[in-house]
Write a structure and sequence with these properties.
about 140 residues; 3 strands; about 50% helix; mainly alpha
Length: about 140
């Protein structure tokens, strides 16, 4: 049975039911979101999407969804060509906004991000049972 979603909220709700999203509350935007995302991608072979909610210093309702492991895989050949690897390597590869190559790399990153989210949605639509999803337990 193919699932249909009316938007990102219903998709995330279904992902959450299947254990595919780990919600992290009260993380600091400056250091913790990036560090937690990088740590999950480095230490877990297939990490869940990380949903950061109630971000310190931001109004309620502002959230961040991280699926950086998929994006990194899509950019792997370009990253390795520049001697970069891992999530930290993605940032080094992109460079700073005043770098002449930044705009083109930003475009590739955003295309990979959109493709990654589309793939995640398609995977959810193709799966009708809970058993097809890996279950990852985090310590609270």
């Amino acid at each position: 049975m193919q699932q249909h979603y009316d938007g990102l909220r219903s998709f995330l709700a279904e992902c959450d039911k299947l254990g595919e999203v780990k919600v992290i509350r009260n993380a600091d935007w400056n250091l913790e979101i990036g560090a937690l995302t990088e740590t999950a991608c480095e230490l877990i072979d297939e990490p869940p999407a990380l949903m950061f909610d109630e971000i310190a210093g931001y109004p309620q309702g502002f959230r961040v969804l991280s699926i950086d492991d998929r994006i990194e895989k899509k950019l792997a050949s370009e990253l390795s060509a520049g001697g970069h690897q891992g999530i930290g390597g993605v940032a080094a590869w992109m460079g700073w906004p005043d770098d002449p190559a930044y705009r083109a790399r930003e475009k590739k990153y955003l295309e990979s991000e959109i493709e990654s989210m589309s793939e995640a949605l398609n995977e959810m639509e193709k799966s009708s049972d809970r058993a097809s999803f890996r279950q990852i337990q985090f310590r609270e």
